[in-house]
Amino acid sequence: MFKLKINRNAPCWCGSEIKYKSCHMAFDDKIARFKREGVIVPSHDIIKTPEQIEGIRKAGKLNTMVLDKVAEVIKEGMSTLEIDTLVHDLIVENGGVPACLGYQGFPKSCCTSINDVICHGIPSEDEILKDGDIINVDVTTILDGYYADASRMFMIGNVKEEDRKLVEVTKECLELGVKAVKPWGRLGDIGYVIDKHATEHGYQVVADIGGHGTGVEFHEDPYVCHIGEEGTGMLLVPGMVFTIEPMINMGEEDFYTDEENGWTVRTEDGKPSAQWEYTLVVTETGIEILTY
Ligand code: MF3
Ligand code: CO
Ligand code: CO
Which of 3, 127, 276, 292 gives 20 to 30 Å between its CA and that of 173? Predict the structure, then answer.
C-alpha cells in the first residue's frame, strides 16, 4: 500500500519555512498518538498557521474596537437599526467587511437580541431600546479575509436585579469556559464547566446552539457545545481558533425560531436569555483571547 508522507526535510506546512522535522513533525506525531487511542482529533485544515493567527488577531482588534464604540453610545431610546448602522460603518471605514451582512441571507451587519431573544435578532428601526432591557450585540468582522467574532451584553437603564444576575452569571460562564481550555485538553471540558455554573444558579444552557471554529471561514469545525463531559470530545491543540458563546436561559431551555423572518431565536417561555462571546486561539502554553 502506498502511504503519502510529508518529507521530513521539506518546509513545514505551517509556513514557517523551517524543515518539517524541526517544526511541526513532533506535533503531528503527538496528535497521531491520541488518534490511535481513539480520541477525535482536529484535521490539519482547522489548525491555523502563525500567519493566519496574526490575521485573525487584527480582525479581532477591529471587532473589539467596534463593540467598544457600541458600549459608549448604546442607550435608552435608540433603535437597534442605529446600532447596526454604527457597526456597519465602523467596520467598512476601517477596511473590513461585516460578516453577518448577507450571510445565508441575513439582512443586517450585526445581531441585536433583546430580553427573550436568545440570538440572531435582526436590527430594526422599529425596535427601540427601553429602560430595563438587556441586549446582546453580536459582531463579526472580516479583515483581509480573516474572521473574528464576539458579542457582549448591555444593560439599558435600570435593569431588574434578576436580569442583572443572569447577565453576570452568563459572563462568568464564558470566563470559566475560557479557563477550561488547555492545549492537549478536550472540548468537553468547556461545556462541563459552563453547564455546571449555569445549573448551580438555576439556569438552563441552550445546548443546541453553540460556538464554532472560525478564522478562515465564519463557521468552521468544531461545534463548541456549552454542555459536556470532562475529558471527552475533540482534542484541543495549539493553533485551533474557535469561539465560546454560551446562551443561558433564566427559565427553560426550549426555544423557537421566528417563522416570518427565519432568524430570530426566542425562548419558548418568554423568559430572558443572555449571551457573551469571545474568539480565542489555543497556544502552546494556554490560550490567547482574540476578541472581547
Ligand atoms: N455571530 C453569530 C455567531 O456567533 C452568527 C450570526 S449569523 C447571522 O456565530 F447571520 F445571524 F448574522
Ligand atoms: Co457571534
Ligand atoms: Co460565533
Answer: 127
Instruction: Let me know how long the chain is.
Output: 292
Convert the pLDDT of each residue in 195-233 to its tens digit.
999 999 999 999 999 999 999 999 999 999 999 999 999
- CB-CB contact of 59 with 142 (8 Å): yes
Nearest of 240, 241, 205, 242 to residue 226 by alpha carbon: 205
Answer yes or no: is the C-beta of 287 below 6 A from any ligand 1 atom. no
- In this structure, which ligand is nearest to the CA of 105? 1
Pocket of ligand 1 contains residue 245 by CB under 6 Å: yes
Record the cell numbers describing residue 177, joined without a space. Answer: 469556559
CB of 103 closer than 6 angstroms to any ligand 1 atom = yes
- Write the CB contacts of 71 (distance below 8 Å, at least 6 apart in sequence): 152, 154
pTM: 0.97
pLDDT above 70: percentage of residues in the chain: 98
| Closest residue to atom 2 of ligand 1, CA basis | 138
Q: Is 255 in the pocket of ligand 1 (CB under 6 A)?
A: no
